[in-house]
Structure formats: structure tokens, C-alpha cells
Amino acid sequence: MPDIKLNKVVKKFGKMTALKEMSLEIKNGEFFVLVGPTGAGKTTTLRVVSGLEKIDGGDIHLDDESAAGMSPADRDVAFVYQSFSLYPQMTVRQNLEFPLNSPLHKEPKDEVKKRVEMVAQLLHITPLLDRMPNALSGGEMQRVGIGRAIVRKPKIFLMDEPLSDLDAKLREELRVELRQIQRGLKTTTLYVTHDQIEAMSMGDRIAVLNDGIVHQIGTPKEVYARPNDLFVAGFIGNPKMNFFECSLLEGGNALDVEKGLIRVALSEKGAAYASRIPKKEGLILGVRPESVKIFEEKGKTRFEAVILFVEHFGSMNIVNLKIGEKIFKSRMGTTYRAEQNKRLWIEFDEERMILFDKETGKAFKHN
Amino acid sequence: MAQIARKKRKKGAKIVVNVIIGIVIALVFAAYVFPIFWMGVSSFKTKVQIFDPQPKLFFKATLNNYKVFFGVSESSEVGAGRRGAATSFIAAMLRSILITGASTFLAIVLGTMAGYVLSRYQMKAKDDLMFFILSTRMLPPIVALIPIYLLFTNMGLKDTLAAFLIIYTNFNLAFSVWIMKGFFDDVPFSFEEAAMCDGYTRFRAFIKVVLPMVTTGLAATAVFCGILVWNEFLFAIIIGTRKWVLMPPMIFTASYGTEGVIWGVLASSSIIYIIPVVVFTYLVRKHLLRGVTFGVIRG
Amino acid sequence: MSMIRLVNLTKRFGKTVAVKNSNLEIEKGEFVVFLGPSGCGKTTTLRCIAGLDNPEEGEIYIENELVNDLPTLDRDVGFVFQHYALFPHMNVLQNISFPLRAMRNKKSDVEREVKKIVDLLRIKDILHLRPAHLSGGDLQRVALARALVIKPKVFLLDEPLSTLDTEFREEARTMIKRIHLDIGSTTIYVTHDQMEAMAIADRIVTMNFGEIQQVDTPENIYHNPTNMFVANFLGSPGMNFVDCELEGDSSLKLKQIGKFLKVGRTIVEKMKSMGAGKSFVMGIRPEDAGVRVKRDDMGFDMEVAVVEELGPENIVNLRAGDQIIKALTSPDFLPKSGDSVWVVPDQDRIRIFDRETQKEIL
Predict the structure, then answer these.
(1) Share of chain C above pLDDT 70, in %
(2) What is the pLDDT of residues B79-99, one digit of tens each?
(3) Which residues in chain B are closer than 8 Å to A83, comparing Cβ atoms?
(4) Which one-letter DSSP state was computed for residue C154?
(5) Nearest to A348 by CA among A317, A315, A367, A323
(6) Mind listing the pLDDT tens digit for each residue in B24-45?
(7) Among all residues of chain A, which has the CA nearest to that of C288?
(8) Alpha carbons A4 and A27: distance in angstroms, whole number
(9) Could you confirm whether domain A242-364 is CATH 1.20.1560.10?
């Protein structure tokens, strides 16, 4: 299985630059997820890797071999689309056989039959083999789509938001299944999605894209816990990270948050982190909802806030809190109960706080 | 909501409206079907019965008009109406079938390929090109009649198969290209892309994947173009003077006898002429109703 | 008097029964969510209420008026389509004014109502643009505006967020709820996303295969599901199900896992009272699975298959043979594949279902 290297790839559509000097390296056998909002350039990246689009700058290497001039067929890639691309005039079985009968592959008949049946079993679609695509549900169609990509045993899987059109429940099931299948096949996979939960759950490593630029590459955990900038911090994580305007107080042992509304005292460790930051003003404090702790009693490092309302999501409760004009969220467990307008004491988990430069958006990392 | 106006209809009004609509539809249907029905009935009548001022529902039917059509018997009225030696109804019909089939086939093949290219590829003046193609049908054919006649005569194409193929295919291309392009536009490009990734060339992907999906377009084009050529009279009568007499001119002239129009033969030959078209359309009806992606792509 | 009432509503498409004998009452000002998988009948029911589809059997009442034979425009409903259905050849202002102008209102009235809705939805800046030039979020606001401009009694939304990126959905859904509260409308919202439903619904109507399963507040539906479908559909991941039978007077034998779980007397007694020869299913939600490393005889042990790290929490997938149990844990809980961990379910949260009827028995 090859690794994929993109080096400063540029792609333009007329006047618009979709990919701006994008560099990525996807390791052999990796499940690599490109995540970002619509229009970020994720699909374009996929198409450029496949060879369906030509690039305007930079280069792409597959296993250290330049891919320039290689057709999609030569690159041995298989695409899985978001909107099902099953050939409607063929049965499921014929759809699965189709890639193997291409001029490039021309597998012998019994080999074709064997592979189709193996893939059907792997994806639990054996009873559907003789049906027509219009008799399948959305989830079933997508399984066949995945099957058609697998049956060729390609070197690279390129998946363009394959689960986006499915029901939420189906998405949960299929994402685990898909990942397990890929683990079994060990095929290098480039997977595109706008859903950060999919990225977090499925990726060995993920790349966060916006406007044709890669903001960060890393394991899901790294990207979650140590985001490079405001965009990544805000995009990854549901509910979103809370952002507060802040500045460092004289003496360096406390943060002045939201222009005097909140005063966050820093421990020794925290103060050391803050002291390493070159700017003292114009900062943004980022605290994820699960790092916003709620207490009934007063405390040295705590400040007061009032409950606006609580959203119950079953396994978690999101408490919307208000202080002054600022609204922020805290994530509590399933048993948490509280009434509107109750006054409570809030503390931020210091180890998980991150300070950002308001102007550049860059994060100041803990060491 | 006093400020916002609402339209309220009485419940009884709905029934009355439906009845009126039903009557109108029935009338329109009758208006279309009745002439054909009358023609069919007349084809079994003698001249006397046809001119009966009080047409009877039950009459003594005769097959004589059909016998004349098949050349089995001669009508006493037929005379100078027949043109040349190589004319019989059956021969004319076969020629019509040949020319309609050939020109429709050409229009479909050329139109499909052109439509595919126009649908898939970017080109600078695509809209202008499309308009130009359509504009060939904006000219009333009769205006081009004399120039075409002179052109073909000078080129030695008068009364030849080639002339018919050229002119009829040309008529049909505009529709063929426009209809097929529309259908190809409805087929997402991802279908060919997936096939190309699998190793199929663009052409094979076109044949094996895309073409089967646009059979509705092919059927619609075939029926539309076929009917156009099948019924074409003007150019047929001008170009096909001696050898290539097609059915529409044939029916027209051979039904004119020494004592005026031979209504019975006119009726019988017309009825027989309708049959192939009806049969063909019936055979392809499934494709006409299908839709492009078999209902697979939703939303 | 209820705002909307459905009585024995049945709708067929050819041989398929899309909606089976539905009975429902919705109060004025309520925000009700129809929740279920694709094809469960939620959209069809919505369309019947709007008058876009006609039911074969049953009655629909809006404010106690039988509306079965009333065309859509007379029912006083505002409908937001999944893909918005905005008129592409008109700009935003024309799209929004369209319903009022179609009903032949005075120009001054049209202008006044349009201005109100434009202010409410904050779309003043895009009034002159056409749908083709709008972002997903803007398209949605315009669709909402067009539905609301007629000040409908009932506000119907068909999966309005499905075309938006996940990051915009929270904002959009909060906006819809806010508008509902501001206007005081009665709203029915259709979705297949249970998180959405939990977040905004006053009551949730769960549906499956054309039948209404359970109608209740989000909390009640989540904590007291009446059957296995509801129990699994709500919650991400859904409830875990393990075939079980009574063992003695104080334990459940967990089939397939081959282990035993101690349970309280209420459960034992209820199971006994169901009669002999019944098969049962134990249900426990991932967050109540109580997974830990240390041995605890109140629970049972299982092998870790894979751990999904989602950021704020982990999903620990446990396997025994074909049986999989998912557990939600804090992000610090990181066993390795193949490790053995202990599952100690929260006794108060254990649910027992009759395997045949799929109904909850406690």
C-alpha cells in the first residue's frame, strides 16, 4: 500500500484558488481524515489525489513516484461518493462485478464471482445481490458503494463524505463498521467529512482544512487537546469551545476575563504558562464545556454565574450559564439537575485552558 | 389574522369544477380520436355508403378498399392518379419505412454523440453553438423548399436516397442534440468518473454506463423524429418525383382518381400507414415513461 | 382544545402503508418533534397535516376544524421544505412576499408583514439576492421567512437542518426555537437526528414503520422508553441490549456473554410475574455501564475490542463472542484492546424488555 505525499499543491478554478500550497503526507495503510466546513477544499484535494483533476502547482507522489501524468486508473484508486453512484440499470451483483471486468483488470469469471461474494459477506449485503439499486435503502446503497470500491482491491480508498446523506443512527453504525473493514484490509484511506465527530472517531490522523489551507495535522487527541489556532479549537469539539476575551493581570498570577467580569486566579503552573506568552493584552481564553466545573459553594478560584437554561441530551447535560452579558456552556453528566436562574460557582480546569492571540488566532501551547 | 386576506372556497364548488374538467377532457379526447375513428369506419365503406347523408351505425362492410391497397384488385375509379411504373402502395410504404428508419437512426447516433460532448466538455461558445443548432429549426421548411430543390437538382441528387437522408437527418438533428444533451445533463458525471477509476476508457464508460441510463431520451428522440419524417409531405413530393415515391405523396396522388378523390382508398391506405407508428410507440412506451436514473438518486 | 388532532390517520402509497392508524394531540404553543428513521412515516404525517398528501383513512383537525377536504392554502400552515423549495427566478424579497401576494393582499399590508419577518430573521442585507447566490444558512432563513410571513397557526418543518454543515446546525436550531417562542406558534419539526430532538422538543413523537411508538418529553422518553426501538434510537450510542434470563432469585444470566449480573428484587419479581417461558432482554445505556478496571462482583468482566476517543469522552467497545456492549467513559479511561475490564451497570438504570413484544416491563 502506498503512502501519499502532497507537496505545496495548488489548484485553481478560474479566479478562485481552491487549494493554496497544500502539503500533506498520508502514511501507508493509514485512515486519514480531511475535516473542514463546506468549501474548504476537501473534495478538491480528493479529486486531485485521484487524478480526476489536474493540479496547477506543486506535486503529488504516490510511494515516492510522481503521479503527474498518471490517469486515475493508473493510480489504482477507488472512489466512494456521497450521493450513491450505483449504476441504476444493473443489479447489485452486476454493480459489484463491473470494476473487475474493466479493460485494466479483466479478472477470470470464477475469481470475479468469488470476490463479489466475499465482499458481500463482509458488508452484510449477500441477500441483496440480485436486487436493483432502486429497491435498496440509503444505508444499503452506501454499503454496495463501499463494496464496489473494495472489490477491486485498490491501493487507495478515496471517500467523499460517504455517510453524510444517511440517518444519524445509520451513520453511527456504519462509521464503526467502515473503520473495522479498513483495518482489516489495511488500504491507505483518505476520508473527507464536515462532521468533526466522524473525524475524531475514525481517523488515525486528521487534517483540519479551511479555505484551501491546512490549519493542523495530528491525531484526533492532539488536535482536540492542543489546537493550533482559534479555527481548529472552535471547529473540533461539540459543543464548541467557550471563548472569552482576556488579558494578563499585573503580577502575572491572574487573568482578567471579559473586561473585568471574571477574575481567574492562576496556580504556579498556570502562571508559568502565562509568563511564557509574549503578549499581555488582546488575548482569548478558550475553555471547553467539559472543563467548566460547577460548584454549589464559593471558592478561591471560583466566580459566580447564573443558569440560563439546561439542555438535556440524555447522556450529557449542557448547562448554559450567563455572567454579565456573556453566555457560556458547561458540560455535566446525565444526572445533573438545576433550575433556571440558580446562582452557582464556576471554576475552569486550569490544565485545559488555552490562551490564543486575538489578532493572529494562534494558540499559545503549554509545553 | 384580520389583516391578511384569505381565499376560501365552498366545498360544493370542488365537485362542480371536477365535473366540468371531466367534460372538457372528454370533448378534447373525442375531437382528437373522432377523425381517426371516422376514417377507420370509412375504409370499410363503398363510395355510396361514404356519401350517405344519414350515416348508419351498422352497415355492410366491404374489404375492397384494402384489396386495392394491396394491389389485389383494381378500383374502377383509379386512373391517372397513379404515377409511374414503380409505384404500388406497398412499395411506397417500404420506402417510407426505410427512409424514416435510416434518417432517425442517423439523427440519433449523431445527436447522441454531439449531445454527450456538449454536456460533458467545457467550450467557449457553448451556448451560442446550442442556439445555432436550434436555429436550424426556426426556419419554416417551405421557405427552403425551392432553394433545396435547385441545389439538389444541380448536384444530381434529385430523386435519390441520399437527398432524403441528408434533408431529413438535418431536420432531426436539432431536436436530437437538444433532447439528448438534456438527458446527459441529468446523469451525474460521477458515474463515468467511477468507471474511469476502475480502468474503463471514457468511451467504454459512455457505452456501458451512461447510454443505458438515457434510453428514455433515445426513445423520445426516436419517436419524435420518426413521426416527423414519417408524415413529411412537402419535401417528399418535391424530391421524390419518380423512383423514390414515399407514402404520403403516394396516398395523396393515388387516391385521386378519374372521378375525384377515392375516399375509400384514401381511408384504407391512411389507416394502414398509421399502424407502424402506433406499434413502434407502443413497443418503446416503457422507456418513454422511465426517467433517467430509475429513481435511484434522491433529493 | 388541542391545536392539532389526528384520529386514526392512515396513508398508503400503493401497497406500502406509510402511516398506520396514528392518533395524536398537540397543544397550542407546543414544539413537537417527529423523530424516527427514514421511511418511518414522519414526513408523510407532516405532509398530511399540511394538506400536501391526502390520507386514505382518518381525520385531521386543526383548532377543532376538520381539515381533510381543505386545500393547503386554506389550512393556515407554514411549511418549510427539506431543500427549501425557494423560487430560483425570484430574489429573496419576492420569495418572501409571494404567499401574501398570491392571496391578493393589499400592497401596504404585504410590505408591513414582510418587514416584520425580515427584522425577526435578520435578513435585510440579502433581500435583493437570488437563491443561487445564498449560503446554506441564508437559504434556510429565507425559507423560514416565507413560511412565517403568513403568520400561520401551525408551523411545519421537514428536516430543515439536514442540508447544513454540522457546525451551523446548533445555531440554526436555536434560532428556530427562539422564533417559535417569539411568535408563539405551534410547531411540528421532523428529524431523524435524536440529538436535535432532545435539544429543542417540548415533546417527542417517536415513529417506526408508520406507527407512533411513544409520545413524551425528551427526558421521559430517554429515561423511560416503552420499547426497544425507542430505547435504542434515543442516545448516542443507543442503549445496549443483552439477551438474559432469570437465574435463581437475585441474578440475571447474560446469554452470549456467559456471565451473571446481580439485580435487585424489583426486577426479579417483575420478571417472575411475567410467567414462565418468557425470554428477556436487559438494556443498559453506555453512560450507565459503569466500566472500571478494578474488580467488582456486583458486575461482570468483558474484553475490550476497541476504544474510540471522541475528545470529551471515550466509547469503549466491549466484546464477548457476537455480543458487543458500548460504554461511555471519561477521556482518561484508556484500556488496550484485549484488556479485561469490569462492567458494573447502575442498578437504577437497568431496563428489562420482553424479547417477543419488545416492550419494557418495569
Answers:
(1) 100
(2) 434 544 345 788 888 889 999
(3) 188, 190, 297
(4) E
(5) A323
(6) 999 999 999 999 998 988 888 8
(7) A315
(8) 7
(9) no
Domains annotated for chain B, with CATH where assigned, are 89-290 (1.10.3720.10)
Question: Average pLDDT, whole number, for chain C?
Answer: 89
pLDDT at residue A82 in the model: 83
Q: The domain C240-354 is classified under which CATH number: 2.40.50.140, 3.40.50.960, 3.10.20.70, 3.40.50.40?
A: 2.40.50.140
Name the residue among A168, A201, A290 with its Cβ closest to that of C312.
Answer: A290
Question: Could you give the CA distance from residue A221 to residue A217 in angstroms, rounded to a whole number?
Answer: 11
Place of cell 419577518: C117
Yes or no: say if A160 and A83 are a contact pair by the CB < 8 Å rule: no
* Average pLDDT value for residue range B113-128: 90
Inspect the interface and report whether the beta carbons of A312 and C218 lie closer than 8 Å.
Answer: yes
Question: Which residue in C75, C84, C103 has the most chain B C-beta atoms within 10 A of its own C-beta, making it the best mutation to test that interface?
Answer: C103
**Cα–Cα distance for residue pair C289/C326, rounded to 1 Å:** 8
Which residue in A has a C-alpha nearest to residue C193's C-alpha? A168
Largest Cα–Cα distance of chain A, in whole Å?
79
| Contacts with B, A 119-158, CB within 8 Å | 132-134, 138, 141, 148, 152
Architecture (CATH level 2) of domain A4-235? 3-Layer(aba) Sandwich (3.40)
ipTM for this prediction: 0.82
Element (H, E) at A78: strand A77-80
Q: Over the Cα atoms of chain B, what is R_g? A: 25
Domain ranges of chain C: 4-233, 240-354
Residue C266 phi, psi dihedral angles, 5° rounding: -55, -45
d(CA A11, CA A20): 7
Contacts of A165 in chain B (CB under 8 A): 299
C108-167 pLDDT per residue, tens: 888 888 998 888 888 888 899 999 888 888 888 899 899 888 888 899 999 988 888 877
**3-state class percentages of chain C: helix first, strand second, coil last, to nearest 5:** 30, 35, 35
Q: Point out the residue among C38, C222, C312 whose CB comes nearest to the CB of A314.
A: C222
